[in-house]
Each structure stands twice: as C-alpha cells, then as structure tokens.
Design goal:
There is one protein chain. The protein is of the alpha/beta class and 207 residues long. The protein is 35% helix and 17% strand. Strand 6 and strand 7 form a beta hairpin. The longest helix has 18 residues.
Length: 207
Amino acid sequence: MTPKQIEQLFTRNDGSYAFARWGRPIVPVVFGVEEETLKVVKGAVEAVATLAGAQMDELDGELGANLMFFFFKDWDELLAVPDLGRLIPDLESLVERLKAADASQYRAFRFDDVAAIQAAFVFLRMSGDMVDIPAETLALTQSVQVMLMWGDRAFSEVSPLAVLPETGATILRPEIAGVIAAAYDRMMPPSADDKSHALRLFARLQG
C-alpha cells in the first residue's frame, strides 16, 4: 500500500484525518444470536485481536463488556434494550435516521481521555442481503471494522476481506492485516489526527 492509500483509510468525509485504536483490553458480548453464532463472533474478534497484538479480557471494570454486538431484525428493537439510551446519546433520533436511510448496520465508539477507543457498539439489522452473508464472513468483517476507528469510506468500495481461490476460504486481506498490526505497534500512538501518522504506518509496513 502507498502512504496515500493508508491515509485514505483514516480520512473522514470532511477531509480530516482521524485514527484511534483500543486503549484497554477488549471484552466482547453478543446479543440476539444463537450460541453457535455467538462463538463465531467472539472467535472472529479474538482472531483479529491476536493479529493486532491487542489484549482481550473477561471483564471491563467500568462497563463489564466494552465491545457490544447487537443482532436484530428491526431498528425499533433497539429502543427496548434496557439502558442502551445511556450508552448511545440521542438513541431515538439515531434510530429514526437509520430507519429513514434503510441502513443495515451502524457502529458507534466511545473514547478515553487520550482519544483511544474505550468502547464500541455494533448494530446489525439482519434483513435483506444481510441474511445471506455467512456468519463467519459477517463476524470477521465487523471485527476488523471495530479493531480501529477507520475513515468513513475506508471499505466502501473494497472489502477488507478476500476469498482464497484455491479453497474458497475467506481471509483478511494481507495489506489490511498489515495496517492493523502496524497500528498496534507499541511505539505508535493510541490516537492521531495528523496525516503524518499514515507515513509512520507505511514505514512499519516496509519493515
């Protein structure tokens, strides 16, 4: 990948650069799925975290769990989730916007005092095309997208995943895996808003 391509991965729609990685061990929890799918989702998170060198844990002292996946069929179901309105500001208006846009997914982040990721919330409306996506593919895609705070259009044209032609197995694209691993290098900052950060990521990919 070129420095410019890496920069685009963390560029927002307004042109600003915004990067963040997790600043604490990741504690996932999954709502709305069967036990078998639960294991698939947690396994995907663990796989991407291991690649990154990010820590995982059984309990977050502040939130209990800090990476929450919600699977549901209709956005209105979120309004019935106890205490979700305390975690997601203006939940009712958000649900109305997502319904109006006929959105199938939404991610929200909370940040700590150094702008590292403190918590993430993944909302997946399982209807239409989403129902046809294999659980393993969906889980891996979502795990990649919450391991870092990516730019608004990072994967709008090209998926972070690839299919091996020999076996048909779905894998994380090597260049994206490299960016994630570089982002979690101990010498790299937990957050950044300057485009020079992309050059530092690029330098680590060459090592």
